[in-house]
Amino acid sequence: MNKPIQLENIEACVFDAYGTLFDFGAAAERCRDVLGDKVQQLTQIWRTKQLEYTWLRSLRGDYVDFWHVTGQGLDYALAALGIEDNALRTRLMELYFVLDAFPEVPEVLRTLKDSDFKTGILSNGSPSMLIAAVRRGGLESLLGPLISVDDVGIYKPHPSVYQLAVDRMNVPAEKICFLSANAWDAAGAAYFGLRVVWINRFGTPPEQLPGSPEAEIRTLSELPPLLVR
Fold first, then answer.
1. Domain residues of the chain, as ranges?
2. Where are the alpha helices (DSSP H) in 61-85?
3. pLDDT digits (tens, 9 = 90+) for 8-60
4. Can you name the CATH fold of 26-97?
5. Does residue 16 have an active-site annotation?
6. Strands 227-228 and 215-217
7. Cα–Cα distance for residue pair 46/195, rounded to 1 Å
8. Across the strands, what pairs with 179?
């Protein structure tokens, strides 16, 4: 029987936000009364274009904040599905601003706090988006810095973004456990030098890129037993 993987000498746990702590599918799901069976399709297209636009803007050097990119991604998704409904667009954007946290998140963060781990968020999200989502989830007292790529004006997986975690947490990279549900983000953080746990919520294969997470879990509930002082 294989011994469970454990991460030693960790001082801080830093989380990606969207897909990791907060369910990006919640906005469309709460509009099922209008979208019907297009909920999943809209969520997938919206998320795909949102991420593609962050990468393309980073390459082009024309940074705008994540709220702007999120709106552009939604506009593409609505157009792709042939939906013209301004009221629905407004509703979806308002719901995205206050996404639901995954059910296990508060308990896991509380466990980490009680164990004296530093915690924080490192996200593409703009500061106002992160603040709103954290408040909705009642997580204010369980998280430290809410670190946004706004501080460097470029999106993940640029190395300068992961350096923000080191600088803002005041912890060396080798003592930071970074957690993301996005395989490309996990690979980017590992390549930078953070200690990475990939939350593979959706059962996807790993990216074929340099940078491998040290552990793979399905939900955040599996995290605390991996951490060893």
1. 7-23+100-228, 26-97
2. 66-80
3. 999 999 999 999 999 999 999 999 999 999 999 999 999 999 999 999 999 99
4. DNA polymerase; domain 1 (1.10.150)
5. yes
6. unpaired
7. 30
8. 15, 197
